[in-house]
């Protein structure tokens, strides 16, 4: 998850006596529902799922495959929800209102508790940009659209998953979206007397096909889209139907099913990690494993002796609040620490989550779930609306910039001025007739640009003062996120991320723009420096041989430079800026005065990190003596130290992309040295 890989909330509706699955007509609700008998082994399976997720989030290096707990939860949820719906429909006692009232009673008490406290904690802990994002996530959590919000956020500049306290609500949103359409569809199927299994089979196959398609096109979409996840809930739904009507198909080899299901889960935990294309085919391991353990029934030896044991059931009973609590505690620990929290903090967060989960279960969840008053449901709905509206207010107020904590971070805590300069806005098409290519970021402020900026997100940052209007210069930018703009070196894209799949085409589009627009006098090339060992093999081949990263650097940039020179353009190459050790947000003490930690490298550390890159740049300069090379380091490093701030202004947006202030300084310095055309009014 990026890195980006998180588990979903426990499936609901099965619980120990005193919980939801044991509710009866005594709840004084209209149209009483039929509920399945309590199975303690399902709580034990929940314990495996939530335990794997918590361990993975707290100590990912220990349990890299723990994220598949979400898939276990989806199957459990599909099974239990469908079992209740089938029984109610077949007994003529289905009530949509009753169904949703029970969902509110089950889901909202713990959820509203956690979200409300996150809102309050954020006021004191988060900078404005962080609090603004939390506000958006609060609204997403209350309206159950979190998965769509996180899907849209999963871009190149998305902040780390570990700093989003409500990221884990994405899968709760998928379950709620399932709850919205599934009862209505089943009611229609039952009324028309269509086959339940046939319908579930069609939905499951289509959803699984979408999952396989998206995993090769957009892994974020495959992960967050309900269309790519519903097949797991359908597996549980199919088991519910078989449980009611075809026990002969699932009850013959209970112990074998149980052990085989366990083996599939163990295989999933052992084989999966963040490098796999997930969900895809790999998700069959936890989904089928959960299906087999559920189908084995409560009498299978492993289910009876292990899953139904007292400790496993105890964890299973608090699995839902435990899921809700553990991630915000870990996220706030990371935010406060400024980087991955030390193991002692993470262990404390897990311990705190266990305690809070037990208290939430005993003091909030169970009492409200058993309340027979309709007023309880109305109050819970009202709190949900208030939390959502509060989140919207936080978002539209920009995270409440007037809070004192924001003064510590200068403008970075108030607004993201870099945001617009890293996304196409249609200006190249309007001003210059360029249709563009996939993944290209193209910006233009003139029909006759004099300067063309080419590279990756680092050239976007360099160009940002022009985009903002701080620098008055007719210019165009053609760039791609995380792109090596090598026009002569095609490669095989992975499509695991939404960027860096079309870099060769973007490089050639930049060359075509330079040729097509005679107004362009100067081309500025800049990009992130490769931090790996440049002697290692790259993704590029030439003449049937894999190029090293150094060879690709020299060949690719050499071809780019030569193409612009042949088009009659002056070329300026800007080596990459020094990096920070940490994001500026992590450099400031949130609870005290002054700077909490040193974010800048010393010049000696900086040169040691870039030794191979600097040598490659020197060789590129030797091979292309007509190119002007502008080294930005003196503006960032002075008296043996590379700085995060210059005066009161931060030089960085994060640990490597320069700020608007730094962009202005660099462009002014380049102009003063005669490396850029004379500044002029934008036509």
Quick gist of this model?
By secondary structure, the protein is α/β, with parallel strands linked by helices.
Secondary structure elements and their pairing?
Elements: H1 40-58, H2 69-90, H3 96-125, H4 128-143, H5 146-153, H6 170-192, H7 196-215, H8 219-224, H9 230-245, H10 247-250, H11 254-271, H12 284-296, H13 301-307, H14 310-317, H15 319-337, H16 343-370, H17 374-396, H18 427-432, E1 440-444, E2 451-455, H19 457-468, E3 475-480, H20 503-516, E4 522-526, E5 537-542, E6 545-548, H21 549-566, E7 570-574, H22 603-609, H23 611-623, E8 628-629, H24 633-636, E9 637-638, E10 641-642, E11 645-646, E12 649-650, H25 660-672
Helix pairs in contact: 1-2, 1-13, 1-14, 1-15, 2-6, 2-9, 2-12, 3-4, 3-15, 3-16, 3-17, 4-5, 4-17, 5-6, 7-9, 9-12, 11-12, 15-16, 19-25, 21-23
If you had to describe this structure to a student in words, what would you say it looks like?
There is one protein chain. This protein is of the alpha/beta class and 683 residues long. The chain is built from 25 helices and twelve strands. The chain has helices at 40-58, 69-90, 96-125, 128-143, 146-153, 170-192, 196-215, 219-224, 230-245, 247-250, 254-271, 284-296, 301-307, 310-317, 319-337, 343-370, 374-396, 427-432, 457-468, 503-516, 549-566, 603-609, 611-623, 633-636, 660-672, and strands at 440-444, 451-455, 475-480, 522-526, 537-542, 545-548, 570-574, 628-629, 637-638, 641-642, 645-646, 649-650. The strands form four sheets. Strands 1-3-2-4-7-8 form a six-stranded mixed β-sheet, sandwiched between helices. A two-stranded antiparallel ribbon has the order 5-6. Strand 5 (537-542) and strand 6 (545-548) form a beta hairpin. Helix 9 packs parallel to helix 12. It is elongated and about 85 Å long. Mean pLDDT is 89; it is low at 1-33.
